[in-house]
Design brief:
The protein is mostly helical. Helices cover 65% and strands 8% of the residues.
């Protein structure tokens, strides 16, 4: 059986380096799996510009943001009629199956020593984060919880430096702050009560505290994910990490939804979880590819544009209003995005 595999593409796309000509040659070769060796006579070579490859992370980040926003909108709609833990669990099941289907196309990379620690620490933190996230949405109004999710890129400025040694430039830091403030203001529904209303609610709303913890945990897991990718490969990490995440999520989700386990047997629940699972699949692939190319704080900042896309979805599909008062947040996020791109 023959299949087309990229030779050298991993080095140029997933671990770009620079040289005097800013380019490298990559080949697609025909590989004979039965003989376990490349087939003779079938290859094509093309030139890859490093500067172009290095900025592919912007496209990956935007695609990931779009997928994340679409996933959240679909889940929000399904939560009205179905148990949130059941739907979330089934959506990740769909994602895992789609990723496992890629295994025959993914070569097993050399696993560095840093992979295992990042993997084993990151997975439990992901479970804690998703439980706290759902608790935050259930216990407090969205306007008092979602703004704090925008804090992740700010946390990353320090966390990614400690865990990865990554530094952000002054323009990049300014862009991150603009995106954070913009995302924060986009989720404030009533400006007449004060722009710092969510902060004032910290002392009376458990959901606000939960979401701050979620934002901080995500800054750690994003950095650990970058470290794991550096010690393996993006696609290998995506498949292994999502599979491990699903296996850990299963007992938690089934326990939290123990009173509604009969819903798992209904075909309707599988149907509503299908599209969110596909969106998570696309979002995961674009996220890990972007993470392998860019400073983690920059990528997560661009990914947080999903908040802006979510506002548009809310207006179009959930009859949410207040677009006018969110003009400031929109402007700040777009300005921040431009600064981050220029700084990268």
């Amino acid at each position: 059986m023959k299949t087309w595999l990229p030779s050298g593409l991993r080095q140029s796309l997933w671990a770009p380096a620079t040289n005097s000509s800013h380019s490298t040659n990559c080949s697609f070769i025909s590989y004979d799996k039965a003989a376990d060796k490349p087939s003779a006579g079938y290859s094509t070579t093309f030139s890859v510009d490093y500067r172009t490859m290095q900025h592919l992370w912007i496209m990956f980040g935007l695609l990931s943001a779009f997928s994340l926003a679409t996933n959240n909108a679909l889940l929000k709609k399904t939560f009205v009629k179905h148990n949130e833990y059941v739907v979330t669990w089934l959506a990740y099941f769909v994602t895992m199956i789609l990723l496992l289907a890629l295994l025959p196309l993914i070569s097993i990379p050399h696993i560095g020593s840093g992979f295992y620690g990042a993997f084993l620490i990151g997975l439990p933190l992901e479970i804690v984060a998703i439980v706290l996230y759902i608790k935050a949405l259930k216990s407090s109004p969205l306007s008092l919880t979602l703004p704090f999710l925008s804090l992740t890129p700010v946390f990353l400025i320090g966390v990614s430096y400690v865990l990865l040694g990554e530094k952000v430039s002054a323009p990049g830091a300014l862009g991150i702050v603009c995106i954070t403030i913009g995302g924060y203001t986009l989720n404030i529904r009533e400006f007449k009560k004060g722009i710092f209303q969510p902060f004032a609610a910290i002392f009376r709303e458990r959901g606000s505290v939960y979401m701050i913890l979620v934002a901080f945990i995500y800054s750690i897991t994003a950095s650990l994910g970058k470290k794991a990718i550096a010690n393996s490969s993006p696609m290998f990490f995506a498949v292994v990490y999502l599979t491990g995440f699903f296996l850990l999520l299963t007992p938690v989700a089934l326990y939290m939804a123990r009173k509604e386990l009969k819903a798992v047997r209904r075909a309707e629940v599988f149907k509503v979880a299908l599209l969110p699972g596909i969106c998570e699949y696309v979002g995961t692939i674009t996220y890990v590819l972007g993470l392998s190319l860019a400073n983690v704080a920059y990528l997560i900042s661009v990914r947080r544009l999903s908040i802006l896309i979510g506002v548009v979805y809310g207006f179009l599909f959930f009859e949410e209003c207040g677009l006018g008062e969110r003009f400031l947040g929109t402007t700040l996020m777009l300005a921040g995005f431009a600064l981050v791109v220029l700084a990268s």
